[in-house]
Specification:
Layout (H helix, E strand, L loop, with lengths): L9 H10 L16 H18 E6 L9 E6 L15 E8 L2 E11 L13 E10 L4 E12 L5 H7 L8 E3 L5 E3 L4 E7 L21 E11 L83
Antiparallel strand pairs: 1-2, 3-4, 4-9, 5-6, 5-10, 7-8, 9-10
Organism: Psychroflexus maritimus
InterPro entries: PPIase_dom_sf (IPR046357), TSP_type-3_rpt (IPR028974)
Protein name: Peptidylprolyl isomerase
């Protein structure tokens, strides 16, 4: 069953995590949630076994080379292909989630045009996307380029997407669609469950509890995003340096800073407590009018009433 945009909607994951417990469903019994380190180790073995026993193919699209598919096949004794684990395009990095280190493997078949920016963990990306389980069950398929918000994607996916770039240029077709230069970034990421859905995958997705998942994608564009329009790019509102904008709420009003137009809750809009140059670009360092070490836009004691 394919559920459009399902794995990318973080709010859906939060809701699923809180309400999908069913007394009759042992997989979703939170009293028995497994140890993340133990699951991490098991997932690493599962992912590396997949990389050692599978190869990939790029399925070309003769009518539109912007819409290729990355397909995984199991090796057998008659296969002359090399396993993914031996690919020159396979890279990895370690990311930390709640004190647990995870190895994130990703195929960087092509990074993208070197003159295009890499997105941050809080930006928006224009891409095609396919999601499948480690068993190769497809749970997501977005074959037409779509803007997706990294703040709403699972950690493992967004940490991969920051390693790619978009295409150099594009042309607009008569029907309003776009055709991109053949230098866009594309690849795949193999995501441990600890930086995906862990114990509670979205209902109906076909993803099992604690199961690693795989995303393949083609990135055509990215853009720096300012979700609340306060003049501060969302990635700069990650004051906790967790690479997750959801956990920074300076005035404790229930709205994280990246969607809060008054971050310190002093009644003065954040946009009015920072400065911009004549071209509208944000100026840093941020103003600290009373010199107390806290920027005005985060300081509820500034301005003060006489």
């Amino acid at each position: 069953m394919k559920l459009k945009n399902l794995p990318l909607i973080l709010l859906l994951f939060i809701v699923a995590f809180n309400i999908s417990c069913d007394d009759d469903d042992d997989d979703n019994d939170f009293a028995d949630v497994r140890d993340p380190t133990e699951v991490r180790d098991e997932n690493k073995i599962e992912i590396e076994n997949f990389l050692e026993t599978h190869y990939y193919e790029i399925e070309e699209n003769s009518s539109n080379n912007n819409l290729r598919n990355l397909v995984f096949h199991e090796l057998d004794e008659d296969t002359e292909e090399s396993p993914i684990i031996e690919s020159e395009f396979l890279e990895s990095k370690v990311i930390t989630q709640q004190g647990v280190d995870y190895t994130l493997y990703y195929l960087k078949i092509r990074e993208g045009n070197s003159e295009r920016r890499k997105p941050t963990f809080a930006d928006s990306v224009f891409l095609t996307l396919r999601g499948q389980t480690i068993r190769k069950t497809v749970f997501e398929d977005i074959p037409n380029p779509t803007w997706l918000d990294n703040t709403q994607s699972i950690r493992g996916l967004r940490e991969a997407l920051v390693e790619y770039r978009g295409a150099g240029d594009f042309t607009e077709n008569n029907d309003g669609t776009f055709f991109f230069d053949d230098d866009f970034g594309y690849g795949a990421v193999f995501v441990p469950s600890g930086v995906a859905y862990f114990a509670v995958p979205p209902t109906g997705s076909g993803i099992r509890s604690y199961e690693p998942i795989i995303f393949s994608f083609q990135m055509y564009r990215s853009r720096e995003t300012d979700h609340d329009g306060d003049g501060i790019p969302s990635w700069l509102e990650d004051l906790e340096d967790t690479r997750d904008v959801l956990d920074t709420d300076s005035n404790n009003d229930g709205s994280p800073n990246f969607i809060d137009v008054d971050d310190d809750g002093d009644g003065v809009l954040t946009r009015d407590e920072v400065e911009f140059d004549e071209d509208g670009n944000l100026i840093q360092p941020f103003p600290d009018s009373n010199g107390n070490g806290t920027p005005d836009y985060l300081d509820p004691t500034w301005p003060t009433e006489d």
